[in-house]
Amino acid sequence: MAFCSDFYDANVYHHQQIRWNEEFGVVPGLANIEDRFGFNSNYLLISAVFSFRFLFGEALNTIQSLLFVAITFWILIQIFKTNYGIAHIIALFFMLLILFTNSTLLNDSSTDIIPLLCIFYFIIKTVSAPDWLVKQPFLASLLPVIMVTYKLSTSVFCLISLGILIYLFRQGKLRNIFFILIISILCVLVWCIRNVVITGYLVYPFESIDLFSFDWKMPKASVQLERLHVQEWANWVFSYLFEIKRNRLIINVTNYSMFILAVLSPIVVIYSWIKKVKISNSVYYIYAVSMLCLFLGMMTAPDFRFVGGYLFGCGFILVYSILKYFKVDETTFPVLGKIAISFIIVCALLFVTDMNYRMIITSDYTTRDLSYIWWKQKRFDYKTQYTEYNMNGLTIYLIDREKTCTFDVLPSTTSYEGIPFTPFKGLKLQSINTVEARGDNLQDGFRTKKEYVDIINDNVEEYIKAYLKRYEQYNEPVSHK
């Protein structure tokens, strides 16, 4: 938490979108000037509420770190309550692995880490107390729905909510069902309305759900290219993860291990079910849903960031099933438990210390820079150069390099040409020259100029061919979502 990471997505559009959310209401057609604004994660909306810019002069991005700490403390409490039960000690070890593999996302803005943490928490809570799904049906059914508004890739996990509603229906608790449905629909409806205002589409980036014709609506071809890029980038990232590199050794080994555990888990879980091991049906159900989410995620966009919660969760259920089979899941280890907890905490502290030390020695930080990290984060100083661009009387700040970060300068984007003037390479989608302001202030929003809408839509096949050809030629993309 002391240092912001050099996370590309955060510096390119997260920080700026957080500031848009701080200073303006939802802006019509905002995704026209930066396509990645269209993802509209509620994480960036919540971050605007808790940025504390009014206190520190700049935004703090610590929600994900605080959630990680909260879940860790919850696990520690469960360990003490169960007199150092082995299952919760293993859960704590899994949290250490999450720290190893997601440290970059934990100390800066990230739309991936909160769904990962919430899904893993949901799974370990169900394993430790299966009846919570029926004792607290409102919380248990609403959490998966809310996660959809944070990361669309978690939508299949809402089958958990469906299972709870079916249970309530069988119990005749129609009022509970009605209340849960109303709240869930309202949560998703508000998010969908923001999608429509920002992009012109109900769900972005799915161009097939084309219901509206507002003037700020993004060209259909732009949305199609965005969806293609998310998939192709994820495919490349998955292949990249299997390249062993010394500076990513811990991350690689952990990812391999989780992937192998997830692949092997059906054998162990199905065997436990056949042998009628005393595992709650709730655990079996949440495991089946998690495996389905993992399978669909790996088939569509196989980036571990999108499926991390399922990977760690299924791996934990595999270990739990083995413990149940040998009837040691409730065994307590007071002495060994204290040693294990101490070891995990020391490893976590050493890892964080080493990470911060590397951050200091690789950056030109002075003693003054480091003096205030006890009360606010230290950001990188990239000294980005901006050029003023006049858009119908409004000033847009452009950066002159395609990979340079915009940070939270408002409003800004890259001056690097996009379609239809240059091929889409995964960075800037539409050229800024194709966009115009809808009014005389930023709140009025932006739209694609009429003369370019048909040009972009009619040439989408050429853009797709040029984009895929770049993958074949260089065997690497140049950005990620």
Structure write-up:
With 481 residues, the chain is mainly alpha-helical. Helices cover 59% and strands 4% of the residues. The chain has 18 helices and five strands. The strands form two sheets. It has a three-stranded mixed β-sheet, with no helix packed on it. A two-stranded antiparallel sheet has the order 4-5. β4 and β5 form a beta hairpin.
Blueprint of the fold:
Blueprint: H1 8-23, H2 42-49, H3 53-56, H4 63-81, H5 86-106, H6 113-128, H7 132-135, H8 137-150, H9 159-170, H10 174-199, H11 220-240, H12 249-274, H13 281-300, H14 304-325, H15 334-361, H16 367-371, E1 386-391, E2 394-399, E3 412-414, E4 435-437, E5 446-448, H17 450-458, H18 460-474
Parallel strand pairs: 2-3
Antiparallel strand pairs: 1-2, 4-5
Helix pairs in contact: 1-2, 4-5, 4-6, 5-12, 5-14, 5-15, 6-8, 6-14, 8-9, 8-10, 12-14, 13-14
Descriptive terms for the model:
18 helices, mainly alpha, globular, two-stranded antiparallel sheet, disordered C terminus, three-stranded mixed beta sheet, about 475 residues
Element string (H = helix, E = strand): HHHHHHHHHHHHHHHHEEEEEHH
Span of the ends, CA to CA: 22 Å
Q: Tell me the β content.
A: under 5%
Tally of DSSP β-strands: 5
Low-confidence stretches: 476-481
Shape: globular
Classify the helix fraction into a percent range. Answer: 55-70%
How many whole angstroms does the radius of gyration measure?
A: 24 Å
Question: How do the strands line up in the largest sheet?
Answer: 1-2-3
